[in-house]
Amino acid sequence: MNYCYRAYGVGIHSDTKILGLEPAVPGAAPFTLCFETGPEPDWVKCARALPARVLSHLPEDQHTDDPAFVLTEHGRGQCYDLSYSNGARFVIDETGERMWGSIQPPLVDEDLSLYFLGPVMGFLLRHRHMTCLHASAVQLHERAILFSGDPGYGKSTTAAALALRNVPVLCEEIVPLELTGGRYYAIPGYPRVCLWPDAVAKLVGDADALPRLSPGWEKRYLALDGVRARFANEKKPLGIIYLFAIRTADPGAPRIEQVRPKDALLGLVQNTYMNWLLDRPRRAEEFEELWKIVQEVPVRRIVAHSDGAKLVTETSSASLTFAKEWAFLCQCASPQCNSSEIAALMQTGFNWETLLDLADSHSVQGVVAKRLEELAFASVPALVREQLQIRMRAQHLFSLSMTAELFRILQQFSCNLIDAVLVKGPLISVLAYGDPAVRSYVDLDLLLRHRDISSAVRCMLALGFHSDVPEVAIRAGKIPGEYLFRRPGTQRVIELHTQDTFRYYPKPMPLEDLFARRRFVPVDGREMPALSLEDELVLNCIHGAKHFWESLMWVSDIAAVVARHPEISWDVAERSAAEVGADRMLRVGVLLGSMLLQVPLPRAIAQRFQRDRGAQSLCRRIQTWLPFAGAAPPALPKRAMFRLQMAGGGVTGLAYLGRLSLSPTQEDWEKGAEERSSWLRDAARRPFRLFRKYGSD
């Protein structure tokens, strides 16, 4: 086999080039599909000689020019023959690990790849018992956002419209789902979005602006190559599922509607890919799986306008035009708000479904629930109240399980003479809101000395965790972005950090000084080792800057800590920030809380911080993308300028930007060579990965 690829989570060895896929590194992950072309191999001849039974026959579609299709089973499932009336043919063996494909003139190589990446891979995934939705998926704020519906409803066009707005695309047409650690994930497909010419014209103004998928077909494709649009090549947990409804001329369209769980289940069942393939037992299993999904993942209905001119922007406009909801969310997050102001804003007629989605995107559901609880949920729709209470009960249970895990880990570390302090997560929730369960978080972060990392890894493995970082890489001295551990079968994730992994500190982290200033903070009835209040404030401001302040949660945290803790020594905080070159990062974090959430600052601090015009300029820029929770990330040049200015600009800023651009993380390591200490090669690879990820526009 001459080519290695990966699509839909499947490793592929192929004897021919598959157009539309980027080569994968041999040995990087298991390759479970062998794809052959050329003369019919012996295994196909033998299998096709067995008794045949037609499982499905679809006639030619006059509207889409799709050829007639026949699916034939040979033997008792020993092979499956997918034949098209235009001469394309694919045969898959019983295990789903071998496939042969062929085409007849006038079909060309592009057609072979097109069938392979579409219905043939869809059949293979279903044959392997993977649940697949007929949908497109994009990545927003590290979650998969799905758009599902009947053909022609705008799934691919919506994905392409968002892609052209710098939102990475996971899949189009087929979205495989995977259950991992108690959460459902969307698996990446391949780096293209297929579009009809009329959709291309609406998107970019010219139907011929994008290349054809095949010389004999009118359909075009948008390449997700990092130049014009981006591909999300890692699986992401499901964030929300949108179901497209029948379009309407109603002037209230486009709009987003809430969907009850039973209706959501019916919508997903109707939009599972190739559901006619399922036998009764498998259909029952999938029904149960989809029921779990609708109980865990929000499902909404998009009612689009019948005016085709609105097709391209209707979804993004409906989901991203939320001025009233954003104002309400900021008021809830402000430590200075009062019940009368919240009650007044509730009379402005905002959309509750949009508010819940926005709060979820910004991870401030707990803050919103707390504010509404203070009003005894007056004027809150019963369904909204129920959803908030369900989410908060789940968050409280998750928080309890995580703090119990934290106690076990710290006890194990103590027995092995490993010093560690808790940062972010439940700690910042206690400091900011007085309760470890109010703030949403997905992992626990522990800071320890780098010399202790090998012992800490052994402790984590002994406690039953699995490491995302290969042990051979740790022994080779490679330094990831964090040492991440997962407990199998749960959603519990632990991240271990050292002074070497905190690379977003402009200057080296003075860990011994931080440990010397540490204190103990009560969390769920136990005293937890933590940084000093000032050091924790600086750390969280650096963390917000690292992520371009794309979430209201981080601004809310800083604002609440400043408001709740008048005992903060600002001289100490400024010295702590200056010690690591994070002076401006501290000012930006604190000023954002003051400007956006109306947190009063001591007069001397306000005057001193406001004299930094660069910090004020950055705050204004952040507020242009902050409401979108990562849906409108700055492009690569703007990201670079942000990094440079956040570190103070000039030579210092350039040095910081250069170091970040050449400091490899696990994503930059050479696949299959984790045991080799190859910093130079990994560092050289990093700028190209960043360019592909964030684009050039």
Overall structural class, as computed from helix and strand content, comes to alpha+beta
Choose one word for the global shape. globular
Helix content: 40-55%
Largest sheet: 8 strands, mixed
> pLDDT below 50 for ≥5 consecutive residues: which ranges?
311-320
Strand residue content: 15-25%
**Major beta sheet, strand line-up:** 1-2-3-8-7-6-5-4
How many strand segments?
Answer: 25
Mean pLDDT: 87
Number of alpha- plus pi-helical segments: 25
Query: How much is the radius of gyration in Å?
Result: 27 Å
Distance from N terminus to C terminus (CA atoms, Å) equals 37 Å
Q: Strands, helices and their partners?
A:
Blueprint: E1 3-7, E2 10-14, E3 33-36, H1 42-48, E4 52-58, E5 69-74, E6 79-84, E7 89-93, E8 98-102, H2 109-127, E9 132-140, E10 143-148, H3 155-163, E11 169-171, E12 174-180, E13 183-186, E14 192-195, H4 197-204, E15 220-223, E16 236-244, E17 255-258, H5 261-270, H6 280-296, E18 299-303, H7 311-320, H8 323-333, H9 339-345, H10 352-361, H11 365-374, H12 382-415, E19 420-423, H13 425-433, E20 444-448, H14 453-462, E21 466-467, H15 471-475, E22 483-486, E23 493-497, H16 511-516, E24 519-523, E25 526-530, H17 533-546, H18 552-564, H19 570-579, H20 583-597, H21 603-610, H22 613-625, H23 636-646, H24 650-661, H25 679-694
Parallel strand pairs: 2-3, 3-8, 10-16, 16-18, 20-23
Antiparallel strand pairs: 1-2, 4-5, 5-6, 6-7, 7-8, 9-10, 9-11, 9-12, 12-13, 13-16, 14-15, 17-18, 19-20, 21-22, 22-23, 24-25
Helix pairs in contact: 3-7, 5-6, 8-10, 13-18, 17-18, 17-19, 17-20, 18-20, 19-20, 20-22, 23-24
